[in-house]
Amino acid sequence: MEPIISISGLTKSYANGFTALDNVDLEINKGEIFALLGPNGAGKTTLISITCGLVNATAGTVHVGGHDIFRDYRQARAMIGLVPQELTTDAFETVFDTVSFTRGLFGKPRSKAFIEELLKDLSLWDKRDNKIITLSGGMKRRVLIAKALSHEPDVLFLDEPTAGVDVELRKDMWRLVRQLRERGVTIILTTHYIEEAEEMADRIGVIRGGRIILVKEKTELMSTLGKKQLDLHLTEPMQVIPSALAAYHLTLSPDGTMLTLHFESRAERTGVTRFLQALAEQGIQYRDLETRQSTLEDIFVDLVRHQS
């Protein structure tokens, strides 16, 4: 499949010597939801800003729908919608007018019907005649989303779209994202709510220190790097883990009442049966046990920690 976004050797360095992006290669497929995760300062916003033509790169190339973002700026930018982190809106314009104006900036014909449908999708229709300065922060965020979608882009960038907003907007946002994906729109999002990426994304990319350290399909990532843990609630508190159990990956809760075994869920032999036998041999009894699968957040934290 031909990627709708192709990034090669992308580098961004500043005069003070700081390198925000370091030789980034990345391809994003048409119609997918791609989540870009990384700690603060990792380079997520810089990567988005360059791809959207807002920041100049030091080196490398970016193509959107086959158009070079630098040489064919207008054609490439017309394919992109961007919802930035910052709440930058035209304070004294009405909601309807500012969304309609943004559509016109991209050369799209007037369409009251389209703007009405868009505002209704984002629960903004009853605010259509309100000046933006009168809106709450959550409503202003909705307006940014509407502006980004006003020219019917093929690619939508969502840079922390639900940061600091209410639960209702988050639900509306992800409902709309699913609808857009069904229409073939490619969506690239960054988020601090990693559970959102786990629920929504088709593929996950992790960036740290300006470098892409991993790109995988979500299901493959969860399967390959995911771990399970077995929690045993002990009948009697334990002071220390017996040396006879040192071969196992165990942790003991601070109060000594829970012993946890960490194991690879995909391993041919998990070692759980042998471990339970070893517990019995040591005379260690438990009243209950439960297992837990790694979340995407667990995997992300582990990846970033080991790359630091």
Summary, kept brief:
The chain is α/β, with parallel strands linked by helices.
Could you describe the 3D structure shown?
There is one protein chain. This protein is an alpha/beta fold and 308 residues long. It folds into two domains: 3-222, Rossmann fold (3-Layer(aba) Sandwich); 226-307, 2-Layer Sandwich (Alpha-Beta Plaits). 33% of the residues lie in helices and 29% in strands. It contains ten helices and 14 strands. Helix 3 (95-105) runs parallel beside helix 5. The model has no long low-confidence stretch (mean pLDDT 86). One of its GO terms (molecular function) is ATP binding. Belongs to the ABC transporter superfamily. Residues 5-234 form the ABC transporter domain.
Q: Give me the CATH fold name of the largest domain.
A: Rossmann fold
Amino- and carboxy-terminal Cα gap: 34 Å
Radius of gyration: 24 Å
Structural class: alpha/beta
Number of domains: 2
Flag low-confidence runs. Answer: none
Number of helices: 10
Domain ABC transporter: 5-234
Family: Belongs to the ABC transporter superfamily.
Organism: Limoniibacter endophyticus
GO molecular function: ATP binding; ATP hydrolysis activity
Question: What labels describe this entry?
Answer:
single chain, 308 residues, alpha/beta, Rossmann fold, Alpha-Beta Plaits, 2 domains, six-stranded mixed β-sheet, four-stranded antiparallel β-sheet, 10 helices, 33% helix, elongated
